[in-house]
Amino acid sequence: MCRLFDDDVCICPKCQDELDPKFVSFKVDGYKALAVYEYTPFIKNLIYLYKGCFDYELNETFLNLYIKEIEMRFCGYKIIPIPSYVEDDKKRGFNHVLEAFKKVGLEVLPIIEKTAHQKQADQTAKKRKEIGKYLAFKEKINLGKTKVLIVDDIYTTGSTMRATINMVERLNPKDIKVLVLAKTSDKGFKKVT
After folding, report:
1. How many CB atoms lie within 10 A of CB 25?
2. pLDDT tens digits along 97-139
3. Where would a tag sit more exposed on the chain, N or C end, judged by fewer CB atoms within 10 A?
4. Cα dihedral 160, 117, 84, 133 sign
5. Where are the domains of the chain?
6. If one looks up domain 15-191 in CATH, what number appears?
Protein backbone atom coordinates (compact mmCIF):
# COMPACT_ATOMS: atom_id res chain seq x y z
CA MET A 1 0.00 0.00 0.00
CA CYS A 2 1.38 3.40 -0.90
CA ARG A 3 1.22 6.37 1.42
CA LEU A 4 -1.38 8.86 0.30
CA PHE A 5 -0.15 11.67 2.54
CA ASP A 6 3.25 12.61 3.92
CA ASP A 7 3.13 12.96 7.69
CA ASP A 8 6.07 13.70 9.91
CA VAL A 9 8.36 10.71 9.64
CA CYS A 10 9.40 9.59 13.11
CA ILE A 11 11.80 6.80 12.10
CA CYS A 12 14.92 6.50 10.00
CA PRO A 13 14.63 5.30 6.39
CA LYS A 14 16.37 1.97 7.20
CA CYS A 15 13.85 1.17 9.95
CA GLN A 16 11.03 2.36 7.70
CA ASP A 17 12.15 -0.20 5.09
CA GLU A 18 12.37 -2.91 7.78
CA LEU A 19 8.80 -2.23 8.89
CA ASP A 20 7.59 -3.34 5.45
CA PRO A 21 3.81 -3.03 5.92
CA LYS A 22 1.79 -5.77 4.22
CA PHE A 23 -1.83 -4.79 4.98
CA VAL A 24 -3.00 -8.39 4.91
CA SER A 25 -6.66 -9.27 5.17
CA PHE A 26 -8.01 -12.28 7.02
CA LYS A 27 -11.16 -13.25 8.89
CA VAL A 28 -11.88 -13.82 12.55
CA ASP A 29 -15.12 -15.69 13.22
CA GLY A 30 -16.45 -14.43 9.88
CA TYR A 31 -15.52 -10.79 10.51
CA LYS A 32 -13.18 -8.87 8.22
CA ALA A 33 -9.78 -8.25 9.73
CA LEU A 34 -6.66 -6.40 8.65
CA ALA A 35 -3.06 -6.70 9.86
CA VAL A 36 -0.70 -3.86 9.06
CA TYR A 37 2.44 -6.00 9.40
CA GLU A 38 3.50 -9.58 9.26
CA TYR A 39 4.95 -10.65 12.63
CA THR A 40 8.58 -10.77 11.50
CA PRO A 41 11.55 -10.86 13.89
CA PHE A 42 12.01 -7.11 13.34
CA ILE A 43 8.37 -6.34 14.23
CA LYS A 44 8.48 -8.78 17.15
CA ASN A 45 11.53 -7.00 18.57
CA LEU A 46 10.02 -3.55 18.00
CA ILE A 47 6.81 -4.51 19.81
CA TYR A 48 8.85 -6.05 22.62
CA LEU A 49 10.85 -2.82 23.04
CA TYR A 50 7.62 -0.82 23.05
CA LYS A 51 5.50 -3.07 25.25
CA GLY A 52 8.03 -5.06 27.27
CA CYS A 53 10.78 -2.47 27.75
CA PHE A 54 8.32 0.43 28.18
CA ASP A 55 9.74 2.46 25.27
CA TYR A 56 6.75 4.77 24.92
CA GLU A 57 8.33 6.81 22.14
CA LEU A 58 7.89 3.86 19.78
CA ASN A 59 4.08 4.22 19.85
CA GLU A 60 4.13 6.41 16.74
CA THR A 61 6.38 4.04 14.81
CA PHE A 62 3.74 1.48 13.91
CA LEU A 63 0.97 3.54 12.32
CA ASN A 64 2.25 7.10 11.91
CA LEU A 65 2.76 6.82 8.14
CA TYR A 66 -0.62 5.17 7.56
CA ILE A 67 -2.98 7.13 9.80
CA LYS A 68 -4.88 8.76 6.92
CA GLU A 69 -5.41 5.46 5.11
CA ILE A 70 -6.64 3.79 8.29
CA GLU A 71 -8.98 6.70 9.05
CA MET A 72 -10.44 6.52 5.54
CA ARG A 73 -10.76 2.73 5.57
CA PHE A 74 -12.55 2.69 8.94
CA CYS A 75 -14.42 6.00 8.73
CA GLY A 76 -17.42 5.95 11.06
CA TYR A 77 -16.09 3.13 13.26
CA LYS A 78 -15.37 3.38 16.98
CA ILE A 79 -12.31 1.67 18.40
CA ILE A 80 -12.52 -0.93 21.14
CA PRO A 81 -8.97 -1.79 22.23
CA ILE A 82 -8.08 -5.24 23.52
CA PRO A 83 -7.18 -4.56 27.16
CA SER A 84 -4.06 -5.45 29.05
CA TYR A 85 -4.03 -6.10 32.76
CA VAL A 86 -4.30 -2.81 34.66
CA GLU A 87 -1.28 -3.61 36.85
CA ASP A 88 0.82 -4.20 33.72
CA ASP A 89 -0.33 -0.82 32.39
CA LYS A 90 0.63 0.83 35.68
CA LYS A 91 4.07 -0.80 35.61
CA ARG A 92 4.57 0.19 31.98
CA GLY A 93 3.12 3.66 32.49
CA PHE A 94 0.73 3.33 29.53
CA ASN A 95 -1.62 0.95 27.78
CA HIS A 96 0.37 -0.11 24.72
CA VAL A 97 -2.64 -0.97 22.51
CA LEU A 98 -4.50 2.22 23.34
CA GLU A 99 -1.43 4.39 22.73
CA ALA A 100 -0.52 2.71 19.43
CA PHE A 101 -3.99 3.40 17.99
CA LYS A 102 -4.63 6.73 19.73
CA LYS A 103 -3.61 8.91 16.78
CA VAL A 104 -6.13 7.24 14.50
CA GLY A 105 -8.88 9.83 14.42
CA LEU A 106 -11.63 7.52 15.66
CA GLU A 107 -13.45 7.63 18.98
CA VAL A 108 -12.10 5.09 21.48
CA LEU A 109 -14.41 3.04 23.69
CA PRO A 110 -12.24 1.35 26.36
CA ILE A 111 -15.14 -0.69 27.73
CA ILE A 112 -13.38 -4.01 28.37
CA GLU A 113 -10.81 -4.78 31.06
CA LYS A 114 -8.51 -7.67 31.78
CA THR A 115 -9.09 -8.86 35.35
CA ALA A 116 -5.89 -10.89 35.89
CA HIS A 117 -2.35 -11.13 34.63
CA GLN A 118 -2.69 -13.78 31.92
CA LYS A 119 0.14 -13.43 29.41
CA GLN A 120 -1.05 -15.27 26.32
CA ALA A 121 2.46 -15.85 24.95
CA ASP A 122 3.25 -18.00 28.00
CA GLN A 123 0.14 -20.19 27.67
CA THR A 124 -0.53 -23.47 25.89
CA ALA A 125 -3.04 -23.45 23.04
CA LYS A 126 -5.66 -24.96 25.37
CA LYS A 127 -5.03 -22.35 28.09
CA ARG A 128 -5.13 -19.50 25.54
CA LYS A 129 -8.74 -20.39 24.74
CA GLU A 130 -9.65 -19.69 28.37
CA ILE A 131 -8.77 -15.97 28.07
CA GLY A 132 -12.46 -15.04 28.11
CA LYS A 133 -12.51 -15.84 31.85
CA TYR A 134 -10.16 -12.90 32.38
CA LEU A 135 -12.06 -10.30 30.36
CA ALA A 136 -14.93 -8.24 31.73
CA PHE A 137 -16.94 -5.17 30.81
CA LYS A 138 -15.95 -1.97 32.60
CA GLU A 139 -19.30 -0.72 31.40
CA LYS A 140 -21.99 -2.16 29.15
CA ILE A 141 -23.33 0.15 26.50
CA ASN A 142 -25.76 -0.37 23.66
CA LEU A 143 -23.82 -0.43 20.40
CA GLY A 144 -26.95 -0.96 18.27
CA LYS A 145 -26.11 1.68 15.67
CA THR A 146 -22.33 1.62 16.15
CA LYS A 147 -19.72 0.21 13.83
CA VAL A 148 -16.93 -1.22 15.97
CA LEU A 149 -13.24 -1.68 15.19
CA ILE A 150 -11.55 -4.02 17.66
CA VAL A 151 -7.80 -3.35 17.78
CA ASP A 152 -4.82 -5.23 19.19
CA ASP A 153 -1.07 -5.33 18.83
CA ILE A 154 -0.41 -8.97 17.88
CA TYR A 155 -2.67 -11.67 16.43
CA THR A 156 -1.31 -15.19 16.87
CA THR A 157 -3.92 -17.84 17.68
CA GLY A 158 -6.83 -15.40 17.82
CA SER A 159 -8.06 -16.53 21.24
CA THR A 160 -8.11 -13.06 22.78
CA MET A 161 -9.71 -11.54 19.70
CA ARG A 162 -12.41 -14.23 19.57
CA ALA A 163 -13.20 -13.75 23.26
CA THR A 164 -13.45 -9.99 22.75
CA ILE A 165 -15.65 -10.37 19.67
CA ASN A 166 -17.91 -12.70 21.65
CA MET A 167 -18.31 -10.02 24.34
CA VAL A 168 -18.86 -7.17 21.87
CA GLU A 169 -21.47 -9.17 19.92
CA ARG A 170 -23.63 -9.15 23.07
CA LEU A 171 -23.80 -5.34 22.79
CA ASN A 172 -25.47 -5.61 19.36
CA PRO A 173 -23.12 -3.48 17.22
CA LYS A 174 -24.10 -2.58 13.68
CA ASP A 175 -20.80 -4.02 12.38
CA ILE A 176 -17.53 -5.42 13.73
CA LYS A 177 -14.12 -5.25 12.05
CA VAL A 178 -10.66 -6.05 13.37
CA LEU A 179 -7.37 -4.20 12.98
CA VAL A 180 -4.08 -5.46 14.41
CA LEU A 181 -0.55 -4.14 14.18
CA ALA A 182 0.93 -7.55 13.34
CA LYS A 183 -0.20 -11.07 12.58
CA THR A 184 1.76 -14.28 12.48
CA SER A 185 2.11 -15.62 8.96
CA ASP A 186 -0.04 -18.43 7.68
CA LYS A 187 -1.19 -19.80 4.35
CA GLY A 188 -4.35 -17.68 4.55
CA PHE A 189 -2.50 -14.39 4.17
CA LYS A 190 -3.78 -12.30 1.30
CA LYS A 191 -2.19 -8.95 0.59
CA VAL A 192 -4.64 -6.08 0.17
CA THR A 193 -3.99 -4.01 -2.93
Report:
1. 14
2. 999 998 899 999 999 999 887 665 666 666 666 677 889 999 8
3. C
4. positive
5. 15-191
6. 3.40.50
